[in-house]
Amino acid sequence: QVQLQESGPGLVKPSQTLSLTCTISGGSITSNYYYWSWIRQPPGKGLEWMGAIAYSGSTYYSPSLKSRTSISRDTSKNQFTLQLSSVTPEDTAVYYCATKSIATMGMDYWGKGTLVTVSS
Q1: Disulfide engineering: 50 pairs with which of 38, 76, 89, 113, CB 3.0-4.6 Å?
Q2: Which of 95, 116, 118 is nearest to 4 (CA)?
Q3: What is the dihedral of CA 88, 89, 91, 94, to 10 degrees?
């Protein structure tokens, strides 16, 4: 059973960079054909897929966030990270990490999520 845990600051100031880490247990970030995603949900709104890093290390981003988003991984720590630059209050959301295999439609496993508030 794969378990995912998000960690990072709960409060970020406008114009700064939001950084979150997802720690994986019960699985490996290099497991063949798995994709590791960041997804967010602003208050009162739906889920938004932000981007993913593949088992190969390739990255994929939502076109609407691509210019501000970077996803990387640390294979030695079995972690992947999200950086979102130039944040505004509209980036306030619960941020989730999740994973899926190439064979499934939806996410197979989710973290519990972490609330990040952008405010001065």
Answers
A1: 38
A2: 95
A3: 150
